[in-house]
TrEMBL record, chain A:
Pfam family, one: Proton_antipo_M
Major localization class: membrane
Record keywords: Cell membrane, Membrane, Oxidoreductase, Transmembrane, Transmembrane helix
Keyword Oxidoreductase attached: yes
Source organism per UniProt: Paeniroseomonas aquatica
PANTHER family listed in its UniProt record: FORMATE HYDROGENLYASE SUBUNIT 3-RELATED, HYDROGENASE-4 COMPONENT F
Residue ranges occupied by any NADH:quinone oxidoreductase/Mrp antiporter transmembrane domain in the UniProt entry: 126-411
Sequence intervals crossing the membrane: 31-53, 74-101, 113-136, 163-183, 203-226, 238-255, 267-285, 297-320, 340-360, 372-393, 422-452, 473-503, 523-544, 648-671
Full protein name: Proton-conducting transporter membrane subunit
From TrEMBL, chain B:
Taxonomic lineage: Bacteria, Pseudomonadati, Pseudomonadota, Alphaproteobacteria, Acetobacterales
Protein name: NADH-quinone oxidoreductase subunit H
Species of origin: Paeniroseomonas aquatica
Protein origin, superkingdom: Bacteria
Keyword annotations of the record: Membrane, Oxidoreductase, Transmembrane, Transmembrane helix
Topological type in the membrane: Multi-pass membrane protein
Length: 674, 319
């Protein structure tokens, strides 16, 4: 099995080389994306086989690695890796299928795509710190190249630059985190790291560094500023993969570090930072998703929200495990894993829908679309499924994992410490608010893109996307429905992964076809709910139509007697239909002012003045002003000071070098002694 | 035998809810009219309105999509499933294991989403306005509801409605301050969710102040009948939910016979009558508030619910 995995990774490397070799050949795109599709399916198949039939025991040693004794790179597949590999396979397959059907991008975007997949697979399958970081950095670099692929536009260049900065930050935090772990263990492979869990300040430092490093890559608040820039800059199938799989790989690293390698004995308060960061991410992401006017930015903000949900669940696992509440830890772990998979699938679908809309109707801006359900019915149906799942409506996949998460949060008071209880109650409220905000954002997005009247002439000429592209939308849409109906079966598959997170005795929170919580007292039966919904739908339709037989008439819109538009406005007066800013107005006024610094400026002319009035609404992310701007100032001032070093005398230079050497030796002596 | 009883109770319950829903709306309207010194239409009037609407052919705007035709059925089905899970005159219904409070919130969200989609389908000013406001209100109502559920979950150890009602009835919890606070929070959420005064006015004729009705301006015929029926079902659901959680007395136990059912029905009708009267008094005594003051109203509910949970933390910590 591991050999097969290695073979797939090597094939991806070969595909990247082939893409370089093929260059501008017209078949290059088909070869690369077709290959990626096959290999992604291979990943998914391997992961399914591993989870269902049994995982390989011994790791596979590679003939590469760091110099030194016993430092060969290791590949292994345990429950957690296999679960995330399944997610990677599914999202990768959908994204590759879409890329096969969509119009080809610039040739330079081809070679990094297989490398991106390979990086994620290496990171997931790694069984030692060096290989994991190697894969992580390969993933970062390849995705940076994909974000920068369309570098003719200034904003894409800025997005790629910021993305690279955050990727560097993630690496700069994760390397010392693994270093601190390895310092006590004397080896880099995971078994050695697990055998020597960190204690005292080292443990706290690992927690902080892991949260910052993996959080920067996953998009946790306040390190989320790159997501809304990088996702729109990349081609749609790449943003689907970045949002669906890459952020999850970062969360995998977080879970691997904190829940596996740091040992099972960490205290319950370890969950609090994760809970706080996750709840804030959920709220900020969902609120920003309600303000944005570009479909892909909106979806990127919704990704921040869902990453927040998963982080909350991971924090709960830590807290419950620290308080010796095994079944509740399993519940929270099930919520985290299931939501990771569900979000991976429906967010891939939604990014592909955004790509299809941009392809078919020529724009990503909400204010230039509208009424596309008539021209693009299949895309609209797929979008409706994905958005209903993102709005966590039963019986779709988002609701199942949301139910588990809320049940885990509602059990948070059992940890016992009153401080934690209050934190858990606040997190419950924030998660519920974020879920409602997500529903509002998804409604706004679907309503503005697919419903209503057309907002631009280009959207009037919209056409349904070609067959292969439609297929690539219907595939994840079908998966979203299936995952929603059979979450208990998926949790059964995830049992090895739950055992890694919540302890070897943990059982998945499912019984038969039902999800359960609280020793089986609370249950969610998705199949029963879906059956009841369909049955009552059919009955109601039958009864109503028997009683009321008249056919539906069509007439001009009523609109409370609003006068008909003049003939030179064939799609109606655009000002009489709410736009992106208008739909955001209630939430901007209710929450945006305090949380996002949203402001509105209204310029109303005096009566009789023929000049047009003006209305503008802005919202600024607080992380820009609160974190990035001070950091940029700090960088400038440090750079200015560093310039002064060049003017030192030779005596000064020698003194500086000597001082650094002595300082480093002292540090080494202290670390050896401690 | 037990299963057969459960099936019969479930069917009777659904029939009762379907029959009572329009009547409940009629009773509230009649009570309000009497309090305002009018004679008021008969409580049967909503039933007659539904009859009339079903006879009429629906007219859709020329650019309306399939959404406008399907959404009324979806919203009605979701509300029906939700209402089938809330116990009325008897416990131990067939769907009792399905009746989870988080699922109820999800089903209501499904109905709300269907309604908001219809509001946006034709692209009119009022529909979009109503949809945006409705979703914004839910952003404050959902966390308050979830914190109430937290209080129940701490006391009963489950989110299953039937088990919560059983615990509150038999558990000897006594009068608890947290439950009183949670009850106030739930009442506030119920008022907002059902678009009643002071959040929204169900009888308004001014489009600019509409929220719920604004989304239905383009609906007619059987579609409008379904929407009105759905709103009535939702009101019934919330009142029955409040009665089932906070006044769980009088309901027939699982596996009881027809006599216990009749007694349970009488108790349920009494509870519903009191709640209708309370709603009518409340609506007559208070004025509608500005849209942007609704977050304060629902924020108070959120704080009350948080206080209820915090009080429980303190009391369990001391015990």
């Amino acid at each position: 099995m591991l050999t097969g995995l290695l073979l797939c990774i090597l094939l991806l490397g070969l595909l990247a080389l082939a893409a370089v070799g093929l260059g501008r050949h017209p078949l290059a795109g088909r070869v690369v994306h077709g290959g990626c599709l096959a290999i992604s399916l291979g990943f998914a198949g391997l992961a399914l086989a591993g989870l269902g039939l049994g995982l390989p025991e011994a790791p596979l040693a590679l003939p590469i690695g760091l110099p030194g004794a016993g430092a060969a790179s290791l590949l292994a597949l345990d429950g957690l890796s296999a679960w995330f590999l399944l997610l990677l396979g599914v999202t990768g397959a959908c994204a590759s299928l879409y890329a096969l059907g969509a119009p080809a991008g610039p040739p330079r975007s081809l070679p990094p795509f297989p490398l991106f997949l390979a990086g994620m697979a290496i990171c997931l399958a790694a069984a030692d710190a060096f290989t994991l970081l190697l894969g992580f950095e390969l993933m970062s670099l390849a995705s940076w190249a994909l974000v920068a692929a369309d570098h003719a536009e200034a904003e894409n260049r800025a997005a790629a630059r910021r993305y690279l900065m955050f990727a560097a930050l993630a690496g700069a935090c994760l390397v010392p985190a693994f270093g601190l772990l390895a310092a006590g263990a004397g080896g880099l492979d995971f078994t050695a790291l697990r055998a020597a869990p960190p204690e005292g300040w080292r443990a706290a430092a690992v927690l902080a560094l892991a949260l910052a490093g993996a959080g920067a890559k996953a998009g946790l608040v306040p390190l989320h500023a790159w997501l809304p820039l990088a996702h729109p800059a990349a081609p749609s199938h790449v943003s689907a993969l970045m949002s669906g799989a890459m952020t999850k790989v970062a969360l995998y690293v977080l879970a691997r570090l904190l829940l596996d390698l740091c040992g099972p004995l960490q205290p319950a308060w370890w969950g609090v930072p994760l809970l706080a960061a996750g709840a804030c991410s959920a709220l900020f992401g969902a609120l920003r998703a309600n303000m944005e006017g570009d479909t892909k930015v909106l979806l990127a903000c919704s990704t921040i929200e869902n990453i927040g949900f998963i982080t909350v669940a991971l924090g709960l696992v830590l807290a419950f495990r620290g308080a010796d509440l095994g079944p509740l830890a399993a519940l929270a772990a099930g919520a985290a894993l299931l939501h990771a998979l569900n979000h991976g699938v429906f967010k891939t679908l939604l990014f592909l829908v955004a790509g299809a809309v941009a392809h078919g109707a020529g724009s990503r801006k909400l204010d230039r679309l509208g009424g596309l359900i008539h021209a693009m019915p299949v895309t609209a149906l797929a979008a409706l499924v994905g958005m209903a799942a993102a709005a966590s409506l039963p019986p779709l996949s988002g609701f199942a994992s949301e139910w588990l998460l809320l049940e885990a949060l509602l059990a948070g008071w059992r940890v016992g410490d009153i401080g934690f209880q209050v934190v858990a109650a606040a997190a419950t409220a924030l998660v519920a608010m974020a879920a409602a905000l997500a529903a509002a954002a998804m409604l706004r997005c679907f309503g503005l893109v697919f419903l209503g009247r057309i907002r631009s002439p280009r959207a009037a000429g919209a056409e349904e996307v070609p067959r292969l592209e439609r297929l690539s939308l219907l595939l994840p849409a079908g998966l979203t429905v299936l995952l929603g109906l059979f979450p208990a079966a998926m949790l059964g598959l995830a049992a090895p992964a739950i055992a890694v997170l919540a302890g070897p005795a943990a059982l998945p929170p499912a019984r038969g076809l039902a999800l359960t919580a609280g020793e089986g007292a609370s249950t969610y039966l998705p199949l029963a709910v879906a059956g009841l919904l369909v049955a009552s739908l059919v009955t109601v339709w039958f009864l109503v139509r028997r009683r009321s037989t008249g056919a539906t008439l069509r007439g001009p819109v009523w609109n409370c007697g609003f006068i008909d538009p003049p003939p030179w406005l064939p799609f109606g007066d655009p000002l009489s239909q709410p736009g992106a800013a208008g739909m955001a107005q209630p939430l901007r006024r209710m929450l945006g002012g305090s949380l996002l610094g949203a402001t509105e400026t209204v310029l109303m002319r005096a009566p009789g003045d023929p000049r047009p009035g003006h209305y503008a609404a802005q919202a600024a992310d607080p992380s820009e002003a609160g974190l990035l701007a001070p950091l940029a100032r700090l960088r400038d001032s440090v750079a200015g000071r560093a310039e002064r070093l060049r003017e030192l005398t030779i005596r000064g230079c020698l003194g500086l070098s000597f001082g650094t050497l002595v300082g480093l030796l002292a540090l080494l002596a202290w670390l050896e002694g401690g | 035998m037990l299963l057969l009883g459960a099936v019969v109770v479930q069917l009777l319950h659904v029939a009762l809810m379907l029959a009572a829903a329009p009547l409940l709306v009629g009773v509230v309207r009649w009570l309000k009219a009497r309090m305002q010194g009018r004679r008021g239409a008969s409580p049967l009037q909503p039933w007659r309105d539904l009859e009339k609407l079903l006879r009429k052919r629906p007219v859709l705007a020329a650019n309306a999509s399939l959404v406008s035709e399907v959404a009324p059925y979806v919203a009605f089905a979701a509300s029906l499933v939700a209402v089938a899970c809330v116990p009325s005159f008897s416990r131990g219904m067939l769907l009792a294991p399905v009746g989870d409070l988080i699922l109820l919130a999800g089903l209501l969200a499904l109905a709300r989403m269907a309604l908001a989609l219809v509001g946006m389908d034709v692209g009119t000013a009022f529909g979009g306005l109503g949809a945006a406001r409705e979703m914004s209100f839910s952003v404050f109502a959902e966390p308050a509801l979830l914190l109430c559920v937290l209080t129940f979950a701490i006391l009963a150890g489950t989110t299953n409605l039937d088990l919560i009602a059983a615990t509150f009835r038999d558990g000897g919890l006594g009068l608890r301050v947290s439950l009183a606070l949670a009850a106030m929070a739930m009442l506030t959420v119920a008022v907002a969710e059902n678009a009643r005064i002071p959040v929204d006015n169900p009888a308004t004729h001014l489009e600019l102040t509409m929220v719920h009705e604004a989304m239905l301006l383009e609906s007619s015929g059987r579609h409008l009948a379904l929407w009105e029926y759905q709103a009535a079902l939702k009101l019934t659901l919330w009142l029955a939910l409040l009665a089932a959680i906070f006044v769980p007395f009088g309901a027939a136990p699982a596996g009881a016979g027809p006599l216990a059912w009749v007694l349970g029905l009488a108790a349920w009708l009494l509870k519903m009558g009191v709640l209708c009267l309370a709603l009518a008094v409340f609506e007559s005594a208070i004025a509608k508030m500005r849209v942007f003051r609704v977050p304060e109203f629902l924020g108070a509910a959120l704080l009350l619910a948080l206080l209820a949970a915090a009080l429980l933390f303190v009391s369990t910590g001391l015990a």
